[in-house]
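Hi team,

As requested, here is the filled-out complex form for the adenosine-5'-diphosphate run. I kept the field names the same as last time so the parser does not choke. Let me know if anything looks off before we queue the next batch.

— J.
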Amino acid sequence: MASTLILIIVFSHLVAKGIQNPILELKKAFKEFNGGKYDYIIKIKGHDEVSDLTQSFQTFQEYFITNNKIKDFYQKELELKLNELKKTDILKDEFSSMITHELKTPLTPIRGYCEMLKENSLGTLTSEQLECIETIDSNALHLEKLIGDILDAQKLDMGHIVFNKTEFHFDSFISELTKNIQPLVDGKNIQLIITSSSDRVIFSDEQRLRQIFYNLIRNAIDFVPEISGVVELGFKSSKDDHIFYVKDNGLGIPKDKQSNIFKKFYQVDTAQTRKHGGSGLGLVICKGMVEGLGGKIWFESGHEQGTIFYFSLPKILPVANEVK
Ligand SMILES: Nc1ncnc2c1ncn2[C@@H]1O[C@H](COP(=O)(O)OP(=O)(O)O)[C@@H](O)[C@H]1O
Ligand SMILES: [Mg+2]
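And here is what came back:
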């Protein structure tokens, strides 16, 4: 009787161990898997439910390892392609920058000689010859402006624009700007309104600020009605920023085209745009310059409701003057 009991105990102990060991092995394999060791191998013994489970786990392990290898392979391929693309992009930028510079170089002597001819420095010209020279010069000027815009857009893309900030008075800045833009409205039915109430001191890049204003004003002038155009420029006050604006009573920018307006080479396709010419780079440059100077640019416009472009520049002072 006692020996039978011992036999039963020994037998059930062996059976329990036979089940428990593969479970413990499986548990260890799960733990190793969790810890990142995906190829832990368990020896499968017998044909019971635990060994079936172990088999399924190993199939999953193999599947996982293969998938990981495929993923690693494609990841490496993608990184290689991305690096190649980056190199090609740099080469493309350098090439187009070089071409644009090469296009610009001959324009300097062309414009120089035009100037000399116009001033009769190389002998007196007939009115017909003078007219030809003026046509050559105005076309060269147009080309120069276009190339200048392409170069600026490239520099902004490559982060190569250097801003030269100084302190200057907004009032004198605006009166000089007005003198420069006056010829654009002369002989046209355009009223130019300048709002410059107080003499603010601005610390920014004066030349770039002039370029931003010029681009916005040029657009405003070209899009106002021929009979009674109104272009207004000035600033609004804000706590942290200087806010400048250029407003016109022109055709406006249709709502469905507004999201494209700051995209490179984009122009709203209208008869007025075709007459205005341009390259679709002006606003891209304005946005790049304003953001480079730490500000923002935005606009309000609607079909036949005119347009108002705003841009802000931070009210910062040169480091030495900054209030501690
Ligand atoms: N004040 C404005 N009124 C109406 N449309 C405008 C105005 N400013 C810009 N636009 C539209 O946005 C387009 C892009 O302007 P811009 O980037 O300056 O390029 P460009 O002047 O060379 O055409 C213009 O062609 C025009 O369609
Ligand atoms: Mg423009």
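Two things worth flagging: The first strand starts at residue 166 and ends at 169. The pocket of adenosine-5'-diphosphate (ligand 1) is lined by residues 215, 219-220, 223, 248, 250-251, 253, 261, 266-268, 273, 278-284, 307 (CB under 6 Å).

Thanks,
J.
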